[in-house]
C-alpha cells in the first residue's frame, strides 16, 4: 500500500492532482480569452496616445520655427490643437 509521509493514499493524491489540473484548465479556458481580448486593446490605445504626442510635438516644433510670435506658444496649446486636428482627421 502506497502512502505519502502525511498518510494520504495514492488515490487521494491522484484525485487531488486531477481536481487541481481540472480547475486550472477551466480557469485557463475562461480567463485566457478575456485576457487576450483585453490586451489586444492596449496597442491601439498606446498607438492613439503616440499619434497625439507626435502631432503635438510636430506642431510645437512648427510653431517654434515660424518667426512670427515665436515666444507666445505654450506646449499645452500645441497639444490641444493637435488633439483637435487628430479628432477631425
Overall description:
The protein is an all-alpha fold and 89 residues long. The protein has one domain (10-88). It is built from 2 helices and no strands. Helix 1 (10-65) crosses helix 2. The protein is rod-shaped, with a radius of gyration of 29 Å. The model has no long low-confidence stretch (mean pLDDT 80).
Strand-helix topology:
Layout: H1 10-65, H2 75-88
Helix pairs in contact: 1-2
Key structural traits:
89 residues, mainly alpha
> What integer value in Å does the Rg equal?
29 Å
Give the CA-based shape: rod-shaped
The proportion of strand residues reads under 5%
The percentage helix is: over 70%
- Uncertain parts: none
How far is it from the N-terminal to the C-terminal residue, by CA?
75 Å
> Which class of secondary structure composition applies to the elements?
mainly alpha
Please summarize what this structure is:
With 89 residues, this protein is mainly alpha-helical. The protein has one domain (10-88). Helix content is 79%, strand content 0%.
